[in-house]
Amino acid sequence: MLHYGHIHAPKIDDSNIIYPGSLASCGFDEPGEHGMCVGEIKEDINPAIIDNRKDLVDYRFVKVDETEYETKSLDITECSSVIEVIDKLDLKNNFYKIELKGVKNIDINKLIEELHISNEKICDIIDNTYYADDYEKIAKQDTLKGIFVRNMLELLKENPEKENEIKHAMEYVLH
Which are the contacts of 122, defined by CB distance < 8 A and separation ≥ 6? Predict the structure, then answer.
């Protein structure tokens, strides 16, 4: 059985290699449980019948660090209150990076403030929410806003992968 270092995420599978990972997570790039692998060599083993490490060693993963780094994404479109969003996030005793997305139906600034107050282990909140504006209707207007929205909708058709950035730009100008 081989043990290799510098693999931060544990990997225990049917191969003859165990990656115990780091004892504790150091950031959001190392999600999940962290700990160590503990094993005991079985006694009275006939070497002729050993096919893999399961025949030679009893082992188990032991979680050492109770706190994990977790990224959560939540669409708040259907949420009508700050409390509802906090309940849906269902935060435990971990460190969190939270992405909010969907249509804004509540005060986002109040939500962000309440999230930081309710859990001091929230490290980052990414606001990818937007207002439910009828961009097509605005684009038909013969105003500067209409011209801007028409140009942005055209840009969105050409670059669908940049939807969040384009919608945020329209939101900034319109609101």
Answer: 91, 95, 96, 98, 115, 116
